[in-house]
Specification:
heterodimer; A: alpha/beta; eight-stranded mixed sheet; globular; B: mainly alpha; Serine Threonine Protein Phosphatase 5, Tetratricopeptide repeat; 2 domains; three-stranded mixed sheet
C-alpha cells in the first residue's frame, strides 16, 4: 500500500529537475536591532536535520548513510569551533530525563514550517505578504512555549539547522556534459541549507539564513567549516565584534 | 545527420532493453535480529527510514494510550511468527483512512482507518502480513532501484531527444509504464507472501480476499453516496501502483479455496481490543465527508454486533451532518435510541437539541440544550448554546 502519488511525483520531479531555473532571492534576515546577550551566550544546537547523498543520472536523490554520518560529525565540530571563536558556548540538545523529546521534535518541525514561510513570504521579494513589506521588519516566532521546556533550562538560544546535499553522481555529470554540448541545460547536485536562531526568552526567531546553492563539501572537515561559515552568514554578533560570515 | 542516427540507435537500445530491476541483496533476511544493511543503497534506505521513524515516534497523531500498538503488534506476531516479528516496531496513527505501511528498517505504520474497517483479527492480520511481505522482500530498496534505473534512462532519452530535436515521449511513456508494472508486480508478490503467512497462522485463509471484497463494497457505497455510478475496474490502469481490488480479491480467494476452510478469525477479541477507541475513530470517520462510505462502515459494524448506543450516536451524527430535513428527523430518533441504549455523554443532548432546533421542534430542543448546559456548565461552547436558548 505504498503511495502511488509518491511514485508519480518522483517520476515527474526527475523530469522537471532537468529544466528548473535558479530563483534569485534574499538569503538572510534578522530581527531589527537584535544583538546577542552580553557575555557568553549558551546556544543549544537542536538535533540537525541532515540528509546527504548522491544525485542519480535521472535526478533522484540517493541517500548515503555514511556521508550523512560524516556530515553530522563534521558540521557539529565546525559549528562549535566557529561559535567558540565568538565566545559562545554550543551545547548539543539532550532531552535527558525530561521526557520532552516528543515536544522537542514538534518544535523542530514547527521551526521548519516557520523557516519555509520566511523564505516564501519574506525572502522571496516578489511574494511578500503585506505585513512583511515594511523595511527592516523581521517578525517571526515559534511561540513562548519553547522557553518553558525543562530540557532547555539555562540556555539562551536554540539553534536549528537543516541541510540537504545531493552530490551529482558520475552519471549525472556525464549527462550534464553531453547535454551541454548539445545545448540542453541540466543541473547537477543539490546543496540546500538553512539555519535559524530562536531566542528562548521570547520564542522569537531572531535570525534565519537560507541558501539554495551552498558551497563546502560537508563530507570533509574543511568543507564542513566552509559550509558552517556560509550557514552562519549574517549571524548576529556582539556589537563590537565581526560576524563569522566575514571569515 | 550523424548525431540523430547515433541517438536514435541509442534510444532504441535503451527502450528495447528495459532497465534491469533485479539485484541480489545480502543473504540474511532483513528481519534477522540486529540486522545491519550492507550495500550503500540499502544503508541509505535504512537511514531514511530511521529518520522517518523518529518523526513517527514523536508524532502527536500517534495513539499511545491503552496498549493499542502492543495489541496490533501481537496480531502481527501471530500472523508472521515470533521469529520474524521480534524486531518490528508498530506505530498506530490517528488517520481515518484505510492504510498500513512498512518501512525498509522494519518499522510498521498502521492508520486508525484500517482498524475501524477490519472486522476481525484475521482481516487486520491479512493486511499486516502483506506489509510485512514488502519488508521481507526488501521492496522499498527494489522499488528505489527500479525507479532510479528508469529515471536514469528517461534522463538520457530526454537529453538526447532535446539535442536532436526528436519527440521522445513514446519512449518515456513506455519507461513510466514499466515502472508502474513493476510496482503492481511487487504488490502481487507481497500479497502472495502475505497469504503464505496467513495459511500458516491459524487465521482462516479466506480473510485475505474478504478484505478486498469489503473495500470494493465500501467504494461502491461511497460512489453512490456522492451520486455517482459505482465503478469497478477489472484491469489496472496505466498509472495504477496496485492491482485492482477485484484482481486481488480474486487471486486470494482462489488461493484460499485450495486450503481447508478452518481457523479462528478471533472476531470477539478484535472487537474487545478496538472498543475503547471506537468512538474517536467513528468521530474522525464522520468528518471525512463520505456519507455513503461511512454509513456502509456503520452498517457493517452493526451487522456483527448489533446497533449499540455508540453506533447509533455515530449514525445520528452522520445524518445530522448531511442535514436534510429527513436526515435531521432520523438523527433525532437515533440520538434518543442511543440514549435509551445507554450512551451517556452530555454531548448527545447538545447535538440532539441542535438537530431538533433546525427542524423547528423548539420546545424539545430547549429541553435538550438545557440538559447539556446543566451537565457541562464549563463547556467551551456553553456561551454559544446559551445564546441559542436566550432567543
Amino acid at each position: 500500500m505504498k503511495g502511488g502519488l509518491i511514485v508519480r511525483a518522483a517520476v515527474f520531479a526527475a523530469l522537471v529537475a532537468l529544466s528548473m531555473p535558479g530563483i534569485a532571492q534574499e538569503r538572510t534576515g534578522s530581527k531589527t536591532g537584535f544583538t546577542l546577550q552580553p557575555g557568553t551566550a549558551r546556544i543549544v544546537l537542536m538535533r540537525p536535520t541532515i540528509r546527504v547523498g548522491a544525485q542519480s543520472t535521472g535526478g533522484m536523490p540517493e541517500p548515503n548513510a555514511d556521508w550523512t554520518r560524516q556530515a553530522r560529525e563534521n558540521l557539529t565540530r565546525a559549528l562549535r569551533a566557529a561559535q567558540e571563536r565568538l565566545g559562545n558556548q554550543v551545547i548539543e540538545y539532550d532531552e535527558g530525563a525530561s521526557g520532552e523529546g516528543q515536544i522537542a521534535t514538534e518544535y523542530g518541525q514547527l521551526f521548519g514550517a516557520v523557516a519555509d514561510s520566511v523564505i516564501e513570504y519574506q525572502f522571496f521579494v516578489g511574494n511578500r505578504l503585506p505585513t512583511k513589506k515594511r523595511k527592516d521588519s523581521f517578525e517571526w516566532t515559534l511561540g513562548r512555549g519553547i522557553g518553558e521546556l525543562r530540557s532547555l533550562t539555562g540556555a539562551d538560544y536554540a539553534l536549528f539547522i537543516n541541510i540537504n546535499d545531493e552530490y551529482g553522481s558520475t552519471g549525472r555529470k556525464v549527462l550534464q556534459l553531453v547535454a551541454l554540448m548539445g545545448g540542453v541545460a541540466v543541473t547537477s547536485g543539490v546543496h540546500v541549507g538553512h539555519a535559524g536562531l530562536v531566542d528562548l526568552k521570547t520564542g522569537e526567531l531572531v535570525w534565519l539564513n537560507a541558501d539554495a546553492a551552498m558551497g563546502g563539501d560537508v563530507r570533509t572537515a574543511e568543507g564542513a567549516e566552509k559550509r558552517v561559515a556560509q550557514l552562519l552568514e549574517g549571524f548576529p554578533g556582539r556589537p563590537s565584534e565581526k560576524t563569522i560570515g566575514g571569515q | 545527420m550523424r548525431w540523430s542516427g547515433i541517438v536514435s540507435a541509442c534510444c532504441a537500445a535503451l527502450t528495447l532493453t528495459p532497465p534491469s530491476f533485479a539485484s541480489a541483496p545480502s543473504a540474511l533476511p532483513p528481519y534477522t535480529p540486529a540486522y545491519e544493511p550492507t550495500t550503500v543503497d540499502e544503508r541509505g534506505m535504512w537511514m531514511e527510514a530511521d529518520e522517518r521513524e523518529r518523526l513517527l515516534r514523536d508524532s502527536p497523531l500517534r495513539i499511545r494510550e491503552g496498549g493499542l500498538e502492543r495489541y496490533v503488534r501481537e496480531v502481527l506476531c501471530r500472523e508472521v511468527g515470533d521469529d520474524r516479528c521480534k524486531g518490528v516496531r508498530v506505530y498506530v496513527m490517528e488517520i481515518p483512512a484505510f492504510n498500513a505501511s512498512m518501512m525498509a528498517n522494519g518499522c510498521m505504520e498502521v492508520w486508525s482507518g484500517l482498524l475501524l474497517r477490519a472486522r476481525s483479527e484475521a482481516e487486520l492480520a491479512a493486511v499486516l502480513g502483506h506489509e510485512f511481505g514488502h519488508f521481507e522482500l526488501r521492496h522499498t530498496l527494489m522499488g528505489f532501484k527500479a525507479k532510479r534505473s528508469a529515471t536514469d534512462v528517461m534522463a538520457w532519452v530526454d537529453v538526447l531527444g532535446g539535442i536532436t530535436n526528436r519527440d521522445m515521449s513514446s519512449a518515456n511513456v513506455s519507461l513510466v509504464g514499466s515502472l508502474y508494472r513493476f510496482n503492481r508486480a511487487q504488490e502481487t508478490e507481497a500479497d502472495l507472501l502475505g497469504f503464505k503467512y496467513m495459511a500458516a497462522s491459524g487465521y482462516p485463509a479466506k480473510a485475505a480476499s474478504e478484505v478486498w471484497q469489503q473495500r470494493m463494497a465500501e467504494d461502491d457505497a461511497t460512489a453512490l453516496g456522492r451520486g455517482l455510478k459505482p465503478r469497478r475496474n477489472y484491469t489496472s490502469g496505466f498509472f495504477d501502483t496496485h492491482p485492482t481490488d477485484l484482481k486481488r480479491a480474486e487471486y486470494l480467494a482462489k488461493a484460499a479455496a485450495a486450503l481447508p476452510a478452518d481457523g479462528d478469525a478471533r472476531v470477539e477479541q478484535y472487537r474487545a481490543a478496538i472498543a475503547p477507541y471506537l468512538s474517536r475513530m467513528l468521530a474522525a470517520q464522520i468528518k471525512m465527508n463520505d456519507f455513503g462510505g461511512t454509513d456502509f462502515i456503520l452498517n457493517s459494524l452493526a451487522s456483527s454486533g448489533g446497533w449499540s448506543g455508540e453506533l447509533l450516536f455515530a449514525r445520528a451524527e452522520l445524518y445530522r451532518t448531511r442535514g436534510n430535513p429527513r436526515d435531521l428527523q432520523m438523527a433525532s430518533l437515533w440520538y434518543r435510541d442511543a440514549k435509551a441504549a445507554g450512551y451517556v455523554a452530555p454531548e448527545l443532548d447538545r447535538n440532539l437539541g441542535l438537530a431538533l432546533l433546525r427542524n423547528g421542534q423548539t420546545e424539545d430542543a430547549r429541553k435538550s440544550l438545557g440538559a447539556y448546559l446543566v451537565a457541562r456548565p464549563e463547556a467551551p461552547d456553553a456561551k454559544m448554546i446559551q445564546a441559542l436558548l436566550a432567543k
